[in-house]
Amino acid sequence: MSAAREPTPPQAVLIGAELERFACELAGAPHYWSEYVREDCAERIYEAIWEDEYVNAWVVCWSTDNDTGFHDHDLSAGGIAVISGSVREERLALARAPLTRTFSAGQSFYLGVSAIHRVTHAGQGPATTIHAYSPPLTRQGVYRTAADGALERDALPFTEELRAASTDLLSGASSHPASAKRRGRSGATTLT
Ligand SMILES: [Fe+2]
């Protein structure tokens, strides 16, 4: 992510490696996101940096204890590129521990449309990531366990922030919500 290059504007809905590559292209173009990077805030911060008919994307700043909780992206796939620091991703699994991976600066990963995942800050120091969605993210699904233990999904517009209200779905425990704050000029909000 050293040389700043202009991202190639999508000509269609992107999936797989193409979407992950687009997130990496945005990560390599600091003029899209550098003004929004904050490393001194306890809240997760995100700002829309790309919007067209095929893709929308955000820059997200993470610090200790930031946690999205388990969620999906409805009809959108996602590509995530790490600019600095580290984040941990977990894919929800039943009757076994979630698949957990940690990604650091220079790494990226892809989320298929069917993925259910959770992203948390990892390691020492703040982290900055790029999140690109195609087709453009309009709605998210968040998961929680009901009083009887049943798994339930709530649909949220992408204008609502994700919170870690149901991070421990398999045990039925819940953690304190982790908030996210939108900054900057955009009217659109979401996260990861
Ligand atoms: Fe996500």
Question: Can you characterise this structure?
Answer:
The protein has a domain at 16-68 and 76-137: Jelly Rolls. The protein contains one helix and twelve strands; from the N terminus they run αββββββββββββ. 6% of the residues lie in helices and 38% in strands. The strands form three sheets. A six-stranded mixed beta sheet has the order 7-4-9-2-1-12, covered by helices on one side. The chain is globular. By secondary structure, the protein is mainly beta. Bound molecules: fe (ii) ion (FE2). Residues 71, 73, 78, 117, 119, 192 line the site of fe (ii) ion (FE2). Residues 71, 73, 78, 117, 119, 192 line the site of fe (ii) ion.
SSE blueprint:
Blueprint: H1 16-27, E1 44-51, E2 56-62, E3 71-72, E4 77-84, E5 86-91, E6 99-104, E7 108-111, E8 117-122, E9 127-134, E10 139-145, E11 151-157, E12 180-182
Parallel strand pairs: 1-12
Antiparallel strand pairs: 1-2, 2-9, 3-10, 4-7, 4-9, 5-6, 5-8, 10-11
Remind me, CATH topology of the domain at 16-68 and 76-137? Jelly Rolls
Main sheet makeup = 6 strands, mixed
Please provide the ordered H/E string of secondary-structure elements: HEEEEEEEEEEEE
Shape assignment: globular
Distance between the termini: 20 Å
What is the share of helical residues? Answer: under 10%
Bound molecules: fe (ii) ion
Within the largest sheet, what's the order of strands? Answer: 7-4-9-2-1-12
**Number of DSSP helical runs:** 1
Quick one: how many beta strands? 12
- Poorly predicted spans: 170-191
CATH class of the domain at 16-68 and 76-137: Mainly Beta
CATH superfamily of the domain at 16-68 and 76-137: Jelly Rolls
Average predicted confidence as pLDDT: 85
Give Rg in angstroms: 16 Å
Q: Supply the CATH architecture of the domain at 16-68 and 76-137.
A: Sandwich
| Class from helix and strand fractions | mainly beta
Residue share in β-strands: 35-45%
